[in-house]
Design goal:
Layout lengths: L4 E4 L4 E4 L7 E6 L10 H19 L3 E6 L6 H10 L3 H18 L15 H13 L3 E4 L2 E4 L15 H7 L12 E6 L14 E3 L1 H13 L3 E7 L3 H16 L5 E7 L2 E3 L2 E2 L10 H7 L2 H9 L7 E3 L1 H27 L8 H22 L4 H19 L5 H18 L3 H6 L8 H16 L3 H13 L2 E5 L4 E5 L5
Parallel strand pairs: 3-4, 3-9, 9-10, 11-13
Antiparallel strand pairs: 1-2, 5-6, 6-7, 7-8, 11-12, 14-15
Helix pairs in contact: 1-13, 4-6, 6-7, 9-10, 10-12, 10-13, 11-12, 11-13, 12-13, 15-16
Length: 478
Amino acid sequence: MSKILVYNTLTRRKEAFEPVEPGVVRMYICGITPQDYPHIGHARTYVAYDVIRRYLEFAGYEVFYVQNITDIDDKIIAKSLETGKGWREIANYYFSVFLKSMDRLNVKRPHVQPRVTDHIEDIIRFIEGLIEKGFAYVAQGNVYFDVDKFSDYGKLSRIDREKMMSAGEQAPGKRKPYDFALWKAAKPGEPWWESPWGPGRPGWHIECSVMSSKYLGSQFDIHGGATELIFPHHENEIAQSEAYFGVKPWVKYWLHTGLLKIRGEKMSKSLGNIIPIHELLEKYDPMVVRYYLASTHYRSVIDFTFEALEQAARSYARIETAAGELANLLRKLDLTYRPREEDLKVYREIVEVRRRFVEAMNDDFNTSKAFAELHRLVSIIKGRVLANPTYMTAVKAFDVLREINEVLGLLDHVFTQAEPEALPSTQLVELLLEVRQIHRDRREYEVADYIARKLRKMGFVLEDYRDRTIWHYRPRKS
């Protein structure tokens, strides 16, 4: 297996990745609270972790991926009261929109997506255990985690007690403002479940500790989410989980994605700059959006602009065109067993691209450098392989491109169309292009342009050279 370095937020340094169980990666990523339309910031996070998951699988690991759904929450309840719709209806609707958007972005679905409301009994048992161990206390139907009892509190976020005091809220029976709720007593008009402490519902932080450990065990490899979850959410998860299980570290590697800003400003409803991802995907090819989001290192801040997205569209089109032309070329090339010295040189350059791609991804999943290698491969394909095609160089370029796509997930449709039965009649297309070339040679451009327009309308991408036209088929995307 490849040696991978991972930046661990817990230690603030890159570390050699060594899972708890050799060859197996257990991975938990905080999921959405479906109380409104998911936005481009959500998409950035889940595309980033999708690429990380794909690379771990590419590197030979068996990955088991869990992502929760917070289907009961203060915001969902507020939305229910505001709209008059049931909280379940709200959660189910927005989660379905989220799933559809992730599918369009080619984000692989987690193996398990547990809902909070399906794990109420598990949560109650976990809280009871914390009370028995002396880490939690009951106050007027609420249950709070006693932060002062956990000496390691703050080791993830590096927050000090003074900031914790200002971040917390005082409530009747609460010992310290920074103690956080494990169970919330029911308020009038809110949904509730029975518990040993009276009717109520879980606090936010406890759900992730319970559901991650239920499916991944008392210690696992990767826990991730957006940077803004480091405090208080992930800090609180560590405290309650290590207190309950008595293991340190509860999670070996903490990963966090950088913020996505809009023209330098954080997304917020007050600024009116939130971009719902489903609306963006109606205007832009989902693979262009995926390209844009994945091409920046997952820990870096993305400053979103539509100009940058347009540039991403042009860059992606070049990659897609080269991949499609290469796939089409392979259907027509004859096998050859006498490579020229130039062919061997091109072959070695392609092998070097693969090596450097792997090297980039091994360095904390550095997609910025990995995309540079993808573009290097595209330049080799367009400038060397397509210009002087041989079966050996074309096959190697195609294989490396396929491997890169396993990780980046941008060109699945190209590799699907590489199967002969997935394409319209190749011979008919070649005949039309031959007729078109005759008209071009005669300078009868009106007829030649007419044929080109019709073919493009049918989904064919054409690239003209002086005496020939390279083409590939681009199926319409949903």
